[in-house]
Amino acid sequence: MRRTPIYYYSSASGLVRTFAERLDRPVYNLAEREHRLSEADGPWVLLTPSYKTGNESNDTIPEGVRRFLRSAVNRRRLVGVMGSGNRNFGRFYQMAAREVARRSGRPVLFEFELSGTPWDVQEALRIMERLDRALTAAPGMALLPE
User: Fold this and answer.
1) Which of 145, 144, 138 is nearest to 2 (CA)?
2) Does the structure show a pLDDT above 70 at 142?
3) pTM value?
4) DSSP secondary-structure letter at 106?
């Protein structure tokens, strides 16, 4: 069974990278140019942090995520979004994941704070394994319209 890859954005803090690497599947950091300019070869999940801390003029979606989503192929093959956030951001908590989900029509699969707890990792693993089974059973699900 194919393990749905996760494309993620992680800053120098590495909090999102740490979480992504615990999910037992291929992971690609969109902070790295080679991944940011690539195209997903099948269904994939986005894991994005939200950085907005209250400045209305700043966009909360990381630029690396925006660039990857400029590809029509990547947008079409996106099947879900996970978000990392900081509750100190108030109403901007998880804003990036929620905004990408809203714009793409894809679901928010899971949200966690900072680098997540052991429970968060186990829950995300469960969700991703269920997604892998669903995509194997219904491969056409991967070709959702933009």
Assistant:
1) 138
2) no
3) 0.90
4) P
- Cα 121 from Cα 19, distance rounded (Å): 7
The model's confidence at residue 89, banded by pLDDT at 50, 70 and 90, is confident
Which helix H or strand E contains 78, and what residues bound it?
strand 78-85
Q: 112 pairs with which residues across the strands? A: 84
- What DSSP element (H or E) covers 121? helix 118-137
* 84 Cβ neighbours under 8 A, 6+ residues apart: 15, 16, 19, 47, 48, 49, 50, 97, 111, 112, 113, 114, 115, 116
Residue 57 has pLDDT above 80, yes or no: no
pLDDT digits (tens, 9 = 90+) for 111-131: 999 889 999 999 999 999 999
- How far apart CA 60 and CA 6 sit, in angstroms, is 20
The closest alpha carbon to 51, from 115, 98, 108, 94, belongs to 94
